[in-house]
Amino acid sequence: MSTRPVTEEDLHGLVDLALDASRQVEVESYLALHPEVAARVADYRSQRAALREALAPVAQEPLPPELGIGRLIAARHHPALAGWRVAAAALLMLGLGGAGGWGLHGLTTSDAQAHTQGIAALSQQATDSYATYVADRQRPVELRADSRAELVAWASDRLGRPVALPDLSASGYRLMGGRVVPTPQGPAAMFMFDDDRGTRLVLLTRGMAMDRDTPMAHRAQGPVGAFTWASEGNGYSLVGALPAAALHPLADAVRRQMGRV
Amino acid sequence: MNDMAQLIEPLIPALRRYARALMRDRSAADDLVQDGLERAIGRWHQRRADGNARSWLFAIVHNLALNRIRQSSRRGRHLPPEDADAVGSVPPAQEHGLQHRDLLRALESLPEEQRSVVLLVSVEDLSYVEVAEVLKIPIGTVMSRLSRGRERLRQAMEGVAKAEPVGASHLRRVK
Predict the structure, then answer these.
(1) What ipTM was predicted for this assembly?
(2) Average pLDDT for residues B54-82, to the nearest whole number?
(3) What is the number of CB-based contacts under 8 A between chain A and chain B?
(4) Please, what are the domains in chain B?
């Protein structure tokens, strides 16, 4: 046990998931011996959660047209244009016009883009990670489950947002570990789980610039199935060589837990 | 240009949320975000290529918000307390609604410098280092503002009428 004193900074680091694994353990064991401090930390945690919950609806409101990025960029380059002409110019400049007319939600979606960036792409990337890493008997994961705090910190740092690990032990799956993997949309976090029979699952998560909120969809490539969805700009895809009926409840469990983050 | 759009666009909802929490008024906050985005687009080429787009955008919006808040307080304009509700103008989830309202009111009672830090860390998930970048303050100052802000908010929510002054010894270390 370290003798480094626990500071106020450590308490906040714990609340904000900013401590490395070993420090986290030290601070937690300190709290176990100091119930008053532990109660204060618990208050900070619920305060943090309540603030997030109270303000979450603002980020979910549909964007007013004035805040559409395409329109802002177009207005910048063509200040003389105004009103609908700006919106139309935005569509042209982004090359995203098309059948949807120039309605503003048409700005950011096109089928081609969705295919290469959205939920379909995420599903494919997760399946690719599955194919590469699950078959790897030497080193399927970069950081193993015993370094889970380090893994979470690493993934959160590279993805630029807090990444949480689901707990699938109730369904018989243990975390093996994970790594950061590349995608054309930036770094993604790959987590691997297995059960007593050695069945491995891969969960891939990354930020979504498009298809930011998308219901769960299933896709199978041979024996390997993927359930993929996105919520508040965070995309998830759970992949395994399981029939849809077996994989679906696992994906639901992940989604339920991620929703609480 | 598409690069810029792709980096900025996913951040807009969070910038709105931060601006709304600071300005407490939907249209004032959205105006502010619009100004901020226009600036960001205009100065995109001045941004350090290896810099963090998120901190950079939050810094722009934060500085604009601060200017406006200072201007309006110099003019002696008072926002009615009811405006607290404008923060979550979509009524927050049912049974927690009242607690949320209390919490957002308590948040408003914090000094601006503590409120920003609490929001950027707790709600916007900026790292302590990013918050230091956004606010151009040393990280130690980030930590002490965070610590004081959270403690004050906690005491407010506990209904501690005369919030004990949080002493420096209490702040620094607990062991």
Answers:
(1) 0.82
(2) 79
(3) 148
(4) 1-81 (1.10.1740.10), 92-175 (1.10.10.10)
Domain edges within chain A: 8-60, 65-108, 113-259
Radius of gyration of chain A (CA): 22
> Mean pLDDT across the stretch A231-243?
92
Element (H, E) at A136: none
Residue to substitute from A1, A8, A23, A109, interface B, most B β-carbons within 10 A: A8
Give the one of A16, A73, A233 whose C-beta lies nearest to B5's C-beta: A73
CATH class of this structure's domain A113-259: alpha beta
Compare all CA atoms of chain B with the CA of A72 and give the residue at the minimum distance: B38
| Interval A128-187: pLDDT, tens | 999 999 888 888 999 998 888 889 989 998 998 888 899 998 899 999 999 999 998 889
The whole-angstrom distance between B156's CA and the closest CA on chain A is 11
Confidence of residue A63 (pLDDT cuts 50, 70, 90): confident
- This prediction has a pTM of 0.54
| Distance (Å) of CA A113 to CA A89, A124, A196, B12, B59 | 19, 14, 40, 20, 30
Helix (H) or strand (E) holding B64: helix B53-74
Token digits for B100? Answer: 């949320």
Candidates A30, A61, A73; nearest CB to B90? A61
Mean pLDDT, rounded, for A86-99: 46
A207: nearest CA partner in chain B:
B10
Number of H helices, E strands in chain B: 10, 0
